[in-house]
Amino acid sequence: MSKVSVIGAGNVGATAVYYIAEKSIAEVVMVDVVEGLPQSKALDFLHTAPLRRYNVQITGSNDYSAIAGSDVVVLTAGIARKPGMDRMDLLKTNVNIAKTASQAIARYAPNAAVVVVTNPLDVISMVVLRETGFALKKVIGMAGVLDATRFRYFIAEELGVWPGDIEAMVMGGHGDTMVPLTRYTSVGGFPIAELLDAATIERLVDRTRKGGGEIVNYLKAGSAYYAPGASAAKMVEAIVKDERQLVAASVYLRGQYGHEGIFLGVPVLLGKNGVEEIIEIELTEEERRALDASAKAVKEGVEQLETFYKPG
Ligand code: APR
Question: N or C: which end of the chain has fewer CB within 10 A?
Fold first, then answer.
């Protein structure tokens, strides 16, 4: 059986483990700095196995060496912004956490594919790439799957149809600058423009863009975790089972879509090697402009990173 390690046994990490266990996708290891936290959650998950009928080994540890030999590592370790903390403080803290985790991944799980969840995603992915020294195809940011599932749900709700019947592709950076390809969004194969008017589609796109924020507004402290956890689990499954699933993920671009040297959400095939292929499709003028704006926002994040971060 494959081995998947989840670094950060908080809300997103534990939720990802939950979905991975439910489908018996792989043996799971959870690692966290908080003493007893990953151990407690691992044991709790094991207690549930007879009821939910899964049979996978789940362990928790405060020691990174537990991730040894992992096929996939999911990075969710990080902190959320606290009152009085500015974006730069948050960035510095999460970069340091990603640095420590990446060095451990390189040491103990040198063949793993890394699914990055910690925000700011497109920047943290860059740190993971540099610190692990892994091949480009092995570092994959989770964003497009999450943005797409939110968009799919809102469309299903609007039309009163089964959510699983909606297909959608969301490119670009994670959050405000995401680029939903509405002309490729369909309901049972029919383009949504056949079923919804332009104003309605725009309203649903806008709600998707603010999807994470809507949840933060309710939660106050903390951010979404069921859909992010499920999105990470889906990516893990595609890699572990070598499915070659076509999803959007944040990957390092070398000229694709006209961008160089940044992580940006684009369609990829996920399989046992991580990113098996980056799929390039023709974009309309408007889509390209939106993607460029997204890339600009990511570049600004990387420039901020460069002001304090030195690899190694
Ligand atoms: N190594 C391992 N775990 C760590 C480290 C570290 N160096 N530093 C912090 N952690 C752990 C924390 O102890 C905590 O249990 O990471 C966990 C983060 O969990 P939560 O605070 O519950 O945050 P969560 O909601 O899971 O979000 C995690 O995912 O979606 C993104 O923006 C979100 O960056 C955030 C990340």
Answer: C
CB burial class (10 A; 0-12, 13-18, 19+) of residue 126? Answer: buried
Q: Which atom of ligand 1 is nearest to the CA of 15?
A: 26
Same structural domain, 103 and 180: no
CATH number at residue 133: 3.40.50.720
To the query of whether residue 259 is one of the catalytic residues in this protein, the response is no
State pLDDT tens for residues 114-159. 999 999 999 999 999 999 999 999 999 999 999 999 999 999 999 9
Say whether both 183 and 47 belong to one domain: no
Best residue among 5, 6, 12, 94 to mutate for probing ligand 1's pocket (most ligand atoms within 8 Å of CB) is 12
**Contact call for residues 146 and 225 (beta carbons, < 8 A):** no
- Domain count of the chain? 2
Structural domain harbouring 148:
144-306
